[in-house]
Amino acid sequence: MSYIKEKFKVKADELSTEVKDLLKNHGSKVIGDVTIAQAYQGMRGITGLVTETSLLDANEGIRFRGYSIPELRDNLPKAVGGAEPLPEGLFYLMLMGELPTEADVQHLSSVWARRSHVPNHVFDAIEALPITTHPMTMFNVGIMALQTESLFAKAYAEGINKKDYWSYMYEDSMNLIARLPRVAAYIYRRKYKNGQHIQPDGLLDWGSNFAHMLGYDDEGFKELMRLYMTIHADHEGGNVSAHTTHLVGSALSDAYQSFAAGMNGLAGPLHGLANQEVIRWILAMQEELGGGTPTKEQIEKYVRKTLADGKVVPGYGHAVLRKTDPRFTAQMEFAKKHLPEDELVKIVWMVYDVVPGVLTELGKAKNPWPNVDAHSGALLVHYGMVEYEFYTVLFGVSRALGVLASLCWDRALGLSIERPKSVTTEWMKNFVEGKVEASAE
Ligand code: CMX
């Protein structure tokens, strides 16, 4: 067993004991009430999930095992000559709950490089799809084709003790994380670069090898990829991609099946697909205005038109956050340092000056501030990645780090199959009239 896996087992055993005690001594303690509005309106604010890897504060933003994004940028190990954190380090932090050493991060880089082989049938499955297929669909087909490699599924079919589930989930998670950049890069090169594929370079760290396979060897893009892969990795457990992965995993579906389910959620325009929508929206605005940099007045007019047409302004608003997303701010800082004169970036900043005021004035959106997706596309375009339909795949590769670390914890803690109670509107009406009890099955 690798030393990281052994260390995880020790930590998992400790926490399992604590959770057992917690359930035994306080299991019936109430942590919240549920309103009728919450049942109909996306279960917002219901505390009903446990996710160890990160915790979101509505005003402060995400903390990964207690560390904010600026703290991660200061404290996680960096590549030689680089300033952005290595995503390997964030994965270690999320899995272990403690900061990694340089050696831990190097170990993960080499383990993932060694495990990155993708069988040919995965590429064949992607090739079977029309070239016009959306990259997120290709990505999910690739992930599902990789499911043939699940060690958990094989072991379960042969019959394993439930106390060993975590071990197979750990192996599948490490293999899947190792393989995803190759699958994603294959899709990119197939769809946009005439199928001219680039072999992995096993000496590079995970993020820069991904950049290399995509065809971007510029050091600036590699730094961006490290930052990108770090900040998109996790956002506690209730968001659609994390919750779906966890939910499907709770049925003892393997890591490939669970992650693919989560990725279908990420492909929705109110979630991860918003990153492509932001660039599409800006380009449509520019086209309507005849090109060039719009004025703030023109942007405001376009925002109002978007809203009047019954559409959302992509990249703005959040189900939990109530301030500017620190993931947006981290990207803004990256842009100020590396590409302050970029035209598209300046438009993103002008949109940031305009949209919160308009959304606040209209008073409907609870959070008028930008989220992570408002900035990411402009950075990618700067380095030449203009194919915006691919952006959600990048988000997905990063999201694997958080949701798969969480799946390891789910199996290590022996979390139950998820099965909340649902009711009908008829039941709700009867409840309001006092004809049924809230606790009734
Ligand atoms: N533009 C226009 N209207 C918006 C809006 C936006 N950016 N954000 C919220 N609203 C509207 C909602 O559509 C809702 O309208 P209805 O009452 O007519 O349904 C109303 O304001 C209240 O919504 P809310 O409680 O503030 O927001 P929700 O929790 O329901 O939704 C989110 C959150 C992110 C889906 C929403 O803000 C949105 O659609 N934003 C644009 C899409 C986006 O950027 N998604 C990416 C989020 C980050 C990620 O997951 O990657």
UniProtKB/TrEMBL annotation:
Pathway note: Carbohydrate metabolism; tricarboxylic acid cycle; isocitrate from oxaloacetate: step 1/2
Keyword presence, Cell membrane: no
Transferase keyword on record: yes
EC number annotated for this UniProt entry: 2.3.3.16
InterPro entries from the UniProt entry: Citrate_synth-like_lrg_a-sub, Citrate_synth-like_sm_a-sub, Citrate_synthase, Citrate_synthase_AS, Citrate_synthase_euk, Citrate_synthase_sf
Enzyme class: transferase
A GO molecular function held by the record: citrate synthase activity
Pfam family, one: Citrate_synt
Domain of life from the UniProt record: Bacteria
Entry keywords, A to Z: Acyltransferase, Transferase
UniProt family annotation: Belongs to the citrate synthase family.
The name this protein goes by in its record: citrate synthase (unknown stereospecificity)
